[in-house]
Amino acid sequence: xxxxxxxxxxxxxxxxxxxxxxxxxxxxxxxxxxxxxxxxxxxxxxxxxxxxxxxxxxxxxxxxxxxxxxxxxxxxxxxxxxxxxxxxxxxxxxxxxxxxxxxxxxxxxxxxxxxxxxxxxxxxxxxxxxxxxxxxxxxxxxxxxxxxxxxxxxxxxxxxxxxxxxxxxxxxxxxxxxxxxxxxxxxxxxxxxxxxxxxxxxxxxxxxxxxxxxxxxxxxxxxxxxxxxxxxxxxxxxxxxxxxxxxxxxxxxxxxxxxxxxxxxxxxxxxxxxxxxxxxxxxxxxxxxxxxxxxxxxxxxxxxxxxxxxxxxxxxxxxxxxxxxxxxxxxxxxxxxxxxx
Length: 341
Hints:
- The chain has 341 residues and is α/β, with parallel strands linked by helices.
- It contains six helices and 17 strands.
- The mean pLDDT is 96.
- Helix 5 packs across helix 6.
- The longest helix is centred in the last third of the chain and has 14 residues, at 254-267.
């Protein structure tokens, strides 16, 4: 199966550059994964597709203001660093631009030297390891000096940084938002609970894979980057009970999906656990954890298009995307939503 099999035509003007003023006012394309039938709704209508006893699973990761612009102390060259993953203590895996200017031992300074990053290791594809040097609390320093690491296809400035966070974001550690969750408001979540739908949370810190295109011809040659996940005991018990009672598990986002499918693939059941996942889901994969998925519209030829194609069928997905383009849905991170039922 080739990467080109997951390509589609997308006019650039359909790439959403800014979030809507009201989170849940986005459109919702409902796709029946069995028949391929498509319905056009608004996101607040999602409640009509959720049934008593279903469990909605969300990713409560919180995005770090992890994009930093600094200068290389030895030359004054402007360097951009994106914090991707905390390795241990103050050591971080980062994406660097321009990477060729940063070698082992180089120090990049941010602000008035409030934060410094010393390069400790060099890898391919612009990856560097840094030791962060600072006094005080790192998150407070990042909130002062850093900005949200918006995807490269967003060219507009984000006026309200909180709009690149879900309303339930809690566990700090992501380099990108789990964007399917951006459509939810606290009020909508309360209405869903009041209807008798269970809501629970897992954590997956979104990392480098979000920023990397599939560069190989045969998708089986693509290697996913690892991301850290956690599932708590009460969540595992609720999901097990949901399965046993014949109700649906509905994942909010591909990140949540990867957590649930990783645990079911590796453990054979939902249990309290944490670890690193590199799971790559593409057509032919048999889903073990989720029944339905709330997601956004994803980039052509991306691993995320491959994941939703595994759930709903490649032809169904590409047809739904074609319809979405025709109906002028908004695409990608700040775009509209899809419910695969």
